[in-house]
Amino acid sequence: VQLQASGGGLVQAGGSLRLSCAASGRTFSSYIMGWFRQAAGKEREFVARISESGGNTYYADSVKGRFTISRENAKNTVFLQMNSLKPEDTAVYYCAAMYYIASTFGSWGQGTLVTVSS
After folding, report:
1. How far apart are CA 56 and CA 61, in angstroms?
2. For 101, how many CA atoms within 13 A lie in the half-sphere containing its CB?
3. β-strand 91-99 against 31-38: which pairing, if any?
4. Residue 89, SS3 per DSSP
5. CA–CA gap between residue 113 and residue 89 (Å, rounded)
6. 47, 68, 97, 115: which could join 81 in a potential S-S bond, CB 3.0 to 4.6 Å?
7. Residue 69 CA to chain centroid, in angstroms?
8. Which one-letter DSSP state was computed for residue 63?
């Protein structure tokens, strides 16, 4: 599956952004989808993931209650709604896909930059 992330930009602290990730290729609904981020000088970290049907979600503690992951399988798209953004959320955000019987995220998008100003 090929992934294309979009929606990043510059926002003030407390603001909101919605990231999108469009998938093409194999059956989208067979993939667990996730969002990760990498800040400058830091390792990539997990943000959120959503099950194939969208019925189960899981978040990093740092974003719980502020970010919401969702998906529209009919449109082959996964979203990350980010509210109450903080300067420490500044990073390149990547979407990723894991085939339902796999154990790791094997497909990655190109990343979209989110910058939160204080």
Report:
1. 16
2. 0
3. antiparallel
4. helix
5. 10
6. 68
7. 7
8. T
Burial class for 15, CB neighbours closer than 10 Å (0-12, 13-18, 19+): middle
- pLDDT tens, the chain, 118 aa long: 999 999 999 999 999 999 999 999 779 999 999 999 999 999 999 999 999 999 999 999 999 999 999 999 999 999 999 999 999 999 999 999 999 888 899 999 999 999 999 9
Q: Which two tokens stand for residue 85?
A: 């953004």
Q: How far is CA 57 from CA 19, 28, 86, in A?
A: 16, 16, 22
How far apart CA 62 and CA 3 sit, in angstroms, is 25
62, containing H or E segment: none
pLDDT at 102: 87
- Position of tokens 């019987």? 101
DSSP state of 13: T
**Distance (Å, rounded) from C-alpha 34 to C-alpha 117?**
25
